[in-house]
TrEMBL record:
<keyword id="KW-1003">Cell membrane</keyword>
<keyword id="KW-0456">Lyase</keyword>
<dbReference type="Pfam" id="PF02618">
    <property type="entry name" value="YceG"/>
</dbReference>
<dbReference type="GO" id="GO:0008932">
    <property type="term" value="F:lytic endotransglycosylase activity"/>
</dbReference>
<feature type="site" description="Important for catalytic activity">
    <location>
        <position position="247"/>
    </location>
</feature>
<comment type="similarity">
    <text>Belongs to the transglycosylase MltG family.</text>
</comment>
<dbReference type="GO" id="GO:0005886">
    <property type="term" value="C:plasma membrane"/>
</dbReference>
<dbReference type="InterPro" id="IPR003770">
    <property type="entry name" value="MLTG-like"/>
</dbReference>
<feature type="transmembrane region" description="Helical">
    <location>
        <begin position="25"/>
        <end position="49"/>
    </location>
</feature>
<dbReference type="GO" id="GO:0071555">
    <property type="term" value="P:cell wall organization"/>
</dbReference>
<keyword id="KW-0812">Transmembrane</keyword>
<protein>
    <recommendedName>
        <fullName>Endolytic murein transglycosylase</fullName>
        <ecNumber>4.2.2.29</ecNumber>
    </recommendedName>
</protein>
<comment type="function">
    <text>Functions as a peptidoglycan terminase that cleaves nascent peptidoglycan strands endolytically to terminate their elongation.</text>
</comment>
<dbReference type="GO" id="GO:0009252">
    <property type="term" value="P:peptidoglycan biosynthetic process"/>
</dbReference>
<keyword id="KW-1133">Transmembrane helix</keyword>
<keyword id="KW-0472">Membrane</keyword>
<keyword id="KW-0961">Cell wall biogenesis/degradation</keyword>
């Protein structure tokens, strides 16, 4: 017969063996799980710090950062770290991967600051919010070479210096419309007045090329054909157009003023243009002083017959067309009243009467 005490002892021994195992799991649960939670929380807090806290929230001075076309997130993250714009390459890559933006990085130059956090940096780069490396400048019709140089210099253009004294001869091979101009002449007259977009790193040749390319486009084959048919030179047309541009109050006057000058040139009469005197003196007088009319200069058309040796400004298309297609009149004189339209006359007597009436 089996002793019941033996069975009881066996069951008790089994329970005793299981007790340490249960205790170990309890210790493991209450020891490891909190540690994992602590590590997890620390990981999240540290990740939040690395991603959302800028390198230096006080420093807003931008740093120019370039993303080269074709490079990946790994290279970008290392470059950001080297520029001290992020703390952690790993966390930057993790954020980009989590947001699934690896293929969205845009090449270009960016203005990033140490006050940017990772999301702001990523948003700037994926949004293509590049530094504008372009500048838009408007040059009015009638601006002189010097005025153009001054306006460019205000925008620190050209990047290497100022326009200098560029000569026609430097561009005659590339631009046929310059072929009949003296090689040593300046580009006055050919820097077509318009609104241009320049890159801030454009040098002399790039800046001038924009002007000359535009002139080449505006002086159409039709206009060049008309100049040829009249047995005239493009350079002479531009000289005359530059005077018309400065003399006319509005475009409607230009063909009529062109007619006066064409009539004077035909009979070898001095142009007597106040604009040419102002070009010499640097003044902007509606009526130059008597002593200014006597100034010695080949550009003074009171003292010299025919056209001056070069343009006195950079004319617009309307003035160029007026020089090619002057109105048909017998007028030899004109004046600008202080108030009212331009007054034209055929004889000196008529002109003097108009002066007495309109210029009181």
């Amino acid at each position: 017969m089996e002793d019941p005490n033996i069975n009881n002892q066996t069951e008790a021994s089994a329970e005793d063996l299981n007790k340490p195992t249960k205790n170990r799991w309890i210790v493991l649960f209450y020891g490891v799980v909190p540690a994992v939670i602590v590590v997890g929380v620390a990981f999240v807090v540290y990740g939040y710090y690395e991603i959302f806290v800028p390198m230096d929230g006080r420093r807003a001075a931008p740093v120019e950062f370039t993303v080269t076309r074709g490079i990946g997130v790994k290279e970008i993250s290392w470059q950001l770290a080297e520029a001290k714009l992020i703390r952690s390459v790993w966390w930057f890559k993790a954020y980009v991967w989590y947001k699934k933006l690896s293929g969205s990085m845009q090449a270009g130059k960016y203005a990033l600051g140490q006050n940017f956090n990772v999301p702001q940096i990523v948003e700037t780069i994926i949004g293509g919010k590049v530094i504008l490396n372009e500048v838009r400048i408007t040059f009015p019709e009638g601006f002189t070479y010097q005025q153009i140089k001054t306006r460019l210099a205000e925008q620190n253009l050209p990047a290497n210096s100022d326009l200098g004294s560029e000569a026609v001869g430097d561009y005659q091979v590339q631009y046929k419309f310059l072929s009949d101009a003296p090689a040593g002449a300046s580009l006055e007259g050919f820097l077509f007045p318009d609104t241009y977009i320049f890159n801030r790193d454009d040098k002399n040749s790039a800046v001038i090329k924009k002007f000359l390319d535009n002139f080449d486009k505006k002086l159409t084959p039709f206009l060049r054909e008309q100049i040829d048919r009249q047995n005239r030179k493009i350079y002479d047309i531009i000289i005359l157009a530059s005077i018309i541009q400065q003399e006319a109050i509005g475009e409607e006057d230009m063909p009529l003023i062109a007619s006066v000058f064409a009539n004077r040139l035909r009979i070898n009469m001095a142009l007597e243009s106040d604009a040419t005197v102002n070009y010499v003196t640097g003044k902007k007088d509606r009526q130059p002083l008597y002593e200014d009319l006597k100034v010695k200069s080949p550009y003074n058309t009171y003292q010299n017959r025919g056209l001056p040796p070069g343009p006195i400004s950079n004319p617009g298309l309307a003035a160029i067309k007026a020089a090619i297609f002057p109105a048909t009149t017998d007028d030899l004189f004109f004046l600008h009243p202080l108030d009212g339209p331009t007054v034209f006359s055929k004889t000196l007597d008529e002109h003097n009467r108009n002066k007495a009436h309109w210029l009181k």
